[in-house]
Recover the amino acids of this structure.
């Protein structure tokens, strides 16, 4: 069933974005339902939509996560949005952009839930108490081998309290993590404002200037990790290209550039 309306809480988001002076989030398209907000942004990119355009949906019928997974969210409960950023860059810039987005989400969640301690789990997850509260999916609009625009898709669990059985022990939400009732519009505007500030820096100078904040938020730092391919070691921070530094047991420092990481 499709919902036809946007809940009143989200309708105040464009005003909050304007108050914060953020280019990201302007214009903001509030949708009752779509396949995926990333699809909306990618199609609009080809139709000339301006940089900063943002699509927010109450429901996605084909929401997607990283590595071909689905992103399922009950309608009207959470934040599902995508931002179009027109930037010409090599594909190697995408991981730093995704990390900056994760950091923006982390910072907005820290404001919304001061008693919680949100952290970034490389490459693109945000965790509270070791459970996933948000994910970021960055997709490129390309011409040949160059990136012409990026679409930054974000899913944040806000009001959901009951998760499907298969993820219940690994997922959380603001409603579960915070004493205060969450406000979707404020979280959305805070993410966009924070990303607006950091993105220029990352695009111009890489991740270096975010290093201190990234390190403070790194959920994997000094933890034993294993990759999908079976490599193991101790996570030792994130480099300026957005790769995870992992020290193997033989002392060699390696860098992982993609894939899923498991805590051992
Ligand atoms: C992940 O953790 O695997 C990334 C999840 C990204 C989900 C968001 S929801 C809004 C946007 N539209 C999508 O289809 N995916 C992203």
């Amino acid at each position: 069933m499709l919902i036809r309306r946007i809940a009143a809480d989200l309708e105040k988001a464009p005003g909050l974005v304007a108050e914060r002076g953020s280019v990201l989030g302007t214009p903001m398209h509030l949708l009752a339902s779509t396949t995926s907000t990333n699809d909306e942004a990618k199609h609009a990119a080809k139709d000339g939509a301006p940089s900063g355009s943002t699509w927010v949906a109450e429901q996605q019928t084909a929401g997607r996560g990283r590595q071909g997974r689905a992103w399922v969210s009950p309608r009207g409960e959470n934040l599902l949005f995508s931002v179009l950023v027109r930037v010409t860059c090599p594909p190697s810039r995408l991981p730093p952009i995704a990390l900056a987005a994760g950091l923006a989400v982390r910072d907005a969640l820290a404001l919304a839930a001061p008693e919680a301690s949100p952290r970034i789990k490389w490459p693109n997850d945000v965790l509270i108490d070791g459970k996933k509260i948000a994910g970021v999916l960055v997709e490129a609009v390309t011409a040949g081998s160059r990136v012409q625009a990026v679409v930054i898709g974000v899913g944040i669990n806000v009001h959901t309290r009951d998760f499907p059985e298969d993820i219940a022990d690994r997922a959380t939400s603001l409603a579960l993590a915070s004493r205060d009732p969450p406000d979707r519009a404020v979280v959305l505007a805070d993410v966009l404002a924070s990303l607006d500030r950091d993105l220029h820096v990352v695009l111009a100078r890489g991740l270096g200037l975010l290093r201190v904040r990234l390190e403070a938020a790194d959920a994997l730092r000094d933890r034993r990790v294993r990759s999908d391919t079976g490599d193991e070691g101790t996570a030792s921070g994130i480099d300026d290209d957005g790769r995870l530094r992992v020290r193997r047991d033989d002392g060699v420092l390696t860098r992982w550039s993609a894939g899923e990481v498991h805590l051992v």
User: Anything to note?
Assistant: The radius of gyration is 18 Å.
